[in-house]
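2024-03-11 09:14:02 INFO worker-7 job=invfold-0412 stage=load source=structure_tokens
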């Protein structure tokens, strides 16, 4: 199926879902404070754009910083685990265990350690992004073709030269694939941190709106969060397309 057909099918299914949602809300006369219709959500998302943008800016900063710190930590760790298999054997159970811990359990601890400011949310986002980047990059490094490894070894290439011209280009598609997964779920960490304790952000706005039975504003915040996730996904996809020119 071509890209155009996939886009048309996906858009059609989404519109059908919204039409069913809209019809159900109108026919059943569901109160706004229980389930607002999509038209109401869209109206609030547009009319309350200044308020939503104010809080979305903080959530976006938390996500960007979380991506930066996760990449800064993930790349060296993946390289060390690749070079020293004993380090991989020691850290792999810890990485798996870190993903088995519910993020809701970590959020209160991060609030205690880093306070109600931005850094607790940044580290929450970084924790969620960190795992898929490390795992994918490590898998990419380990999947490098053995014949190319032997060729670089026979030519006497030092490790850093081999890493620059062989291992990193080979693992780059894996790294970007893990980054796409990470940025798409980065909003989860930031929002959960804002739910536990914050003074600004879309998660904070959702909690405040829910307490005032402004469910339409809660859905509008979710819509803006979805837009942030999609934008980051598209941005990484554009970087991937521009960087991996040899794969085409």
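2024-03-11 09:14:09 INFO worker-7 stage=emit residues=248
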């Amino acid at each position: 199926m071509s890209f155009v057909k996939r886009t048309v099918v996906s858009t059609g299914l989404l519109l059908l879902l919204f039409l069913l949602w809209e019809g159900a809300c109108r026919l059943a006369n569901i109160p706004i404070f229980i389930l607002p219709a999509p038209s109401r959500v869209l109206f609030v998302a547009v009319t309350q754009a200044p308020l939503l943008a104010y809080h979305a800016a903080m959530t976006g900063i938390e996500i960007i910083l979380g991506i930066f710190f996760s990449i800064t930590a993930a790349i060296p760790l993946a390289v060390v685990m690749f070079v020293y298999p004993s380090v991989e054997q020691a850290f792999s159970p810890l990485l798996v265990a870190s993903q088995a811990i519910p993020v809701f359990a970590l959020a209160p601890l991060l609030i205690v350690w880093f306070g109600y400011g931005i850094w607790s949310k940044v580290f929450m986002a970084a924790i969620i992004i960190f795992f898929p980047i490390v795992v994918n990059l490590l898998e990419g490094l380990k999947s490098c073709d053995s014949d190319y490894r032997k060729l670089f070894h026979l030519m006497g290439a030092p490790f850093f030269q081999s890493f620059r011209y062989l291992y990193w280009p080979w693992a780059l598609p894996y790294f970007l694939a893990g980054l796409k997964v990470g940025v798409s779920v980065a909003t989860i960490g930031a929002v959960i941190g804002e739910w536990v304790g914050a003074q600004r952000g879309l998660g904070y706005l959702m909690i405040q709106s829910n307490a005032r039975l402004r469910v339409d504003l809660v859905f509008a915040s979710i819509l803006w969060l979805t837009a942030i996730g999609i934008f980051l996904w598209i941005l990484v996809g554009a970087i991937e397309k521009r960087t991996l020119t040899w794969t085409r």
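2024-03-11 09:14:09 INFO worker-7 stage=report msg="Residues 37-247 form a domain with the MetI-like fold fold (CATH 1.10.3720.10)."
2024-03-11 09:14:10 INFO worker-7 job finished
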